[in-house]
Amino acid sequence: MIRSALMPGQATTAGHLPDHADHRPTRAVLHVLSAAGLTLARLTDQRNDTTITGAFAWPSLRHGNDRAADIWWFVNGEKEEQPDRSAARREATRAARNAALDQAETELAAAGYRVYRTESRRTQTRRVLHLTAMMPTPKEAARLRERRAKLNESAARIREPQISVGQ
Known about the structure:
The chain is α+β, with helices and mostly antiparallel strands. It has one domain. Helices cover about 35% and strands about 15% of the residues. The chain has three helices and four strands, in the order αββαββα. It has helices at about 25-35, 85-110, 140-160; strands at about 55-60, 70-75, 115-120, 130-135. β1 (about 55-60) and β2 (about 70-75) form a beta hairpin. The protein is globular. The mean pLDDT is about 80.
């Protein structure tokens, strides 16, 4: 369970802590995820809040804080499985978390991010723990824009009707 990181009366935030509101990679990742229709976890100032479900991001300390953010998926107020739950409940939670993080990975990769997945080695079935998304460098972003422009040009050419006037 989340032991609330918010102080009583502090404003709730969607997908991040108030302290990370100025962190550009965290904001950018959450923008991509919300534009894709994924739910962002909204923290409250209540302890042990079990209603929190969705994506939550904060600066990554492992891969360089200037361009990376870690993404976790909360289910019922928890970002990880709890061993005291029944096997069936753990499997259902694991499947939901895996599917959500897979979708987040797909959306971020399509937006040009380099995405690294951290999975557990302690389970017999696949268990995604979290994602780390690296913002594209300016050079990578320019290459991605060029590639998208070329795709748009070719798509426009395909859609043009080929009409020939016969005599």
